[in-house]
């Protein structure tokens, strides 16, 4: 069983690699990264893979069983980027894709961020490759960036009105992804 993780040099990806290393031998994990030098401390093999460079993807996905596709951080072009990966996965015979989507991506109209996730979910369904969609919620760390201002101003201000959200730390999403 070989598990490949694009975005492995990102904040979530690094945590996923760590969690996976506690569950499976490191030899079964492959980090797919834009800059292999940044992956030197991950403790697993690294292959170059850029969502915008399909020519890197076939080689990166060779003999990969499970692909944990971490959604790209480039909002706007990422549905196309993810499609490049899914198409390469189909070509190379990946047996399962796990994708980090967004909470209620299929039904929500509250955030434009959902549009690209919805497009990728549709591509996954059309691909014929068995898939698991992880509909991640908001990262708690998104709030921690604002703590300084909230402490200084004496209030934590948002625009959610009566809206409610249940956030979780990246480490929790990583634990779920690795499971
Ligand atoms: N739920 C939430 O609250 C929330 C918040 C922010 C983001 N997200 C989503 O969750 C993902 C992971 O979050 P994160 O905090 O780990 O983000 P992050 O630290 O910015 O990591 C994003 C990863 O995507 C990689 N990447 C970006 N463009 C790529 C490309 N063209 N080809 C290959 N890899 C590419 C980056 O590679 P490099 O290491 O080479 O830069 C990086 O490893 C984000 O990308 C975004 O889709 C969710």
Automatic annotation (TrEMBL):
It holds the Pfam family NAD_binding_10. Transmembrane segments: none annotated. It comes from the Bacteria. Residues 7-158 form the NAD(P)-binding domain. Signal peptide: none annotated. InterPro entries: NAD(P)-bd_dom, NAD(P)-bd_dom_sf, NmrA-type_oxidoreductase. This is NAD(P)H-binding protein. It comes from Microvirga makkahensis.
């Amino acid at each position: 069983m070989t598990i490949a993780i694009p975005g492995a040099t990102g904040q979530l990806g690094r945590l996923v690699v760590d969690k996976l290393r506690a569950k499976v031998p490191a030899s079964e994990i492959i980090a797919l990264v834009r800059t292999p030098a940044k992956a030197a401390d991950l403790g697993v093999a690294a292959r170059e893979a850029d969502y915008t460079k399909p020519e890197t993807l076939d080689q990166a996905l060779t003999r990969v069983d499970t692909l944990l596709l971490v959604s790209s951080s480039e909002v706007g072009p990422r549905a196309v980027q993810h499609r490049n990966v899914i198409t390469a996965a189909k070509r190379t015979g990946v047996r399962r894709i796990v994708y980090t989507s967004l909470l209620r991506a299929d039904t929500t109209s509250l955030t434009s961020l959902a549009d690209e996730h919805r497009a990728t979910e549709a591509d996954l369904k059309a691909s014929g490759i068995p898939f698991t969609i992880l509909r991640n919620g908001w990262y708690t760390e998104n709030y921690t960036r604002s703590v300084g201002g909230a402490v200084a101003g004496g209030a934590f201000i948002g625009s959610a009105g009566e809206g409610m959200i249940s956030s979780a730390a990246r480490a929790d999403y990583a634990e779920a992804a690795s499971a």
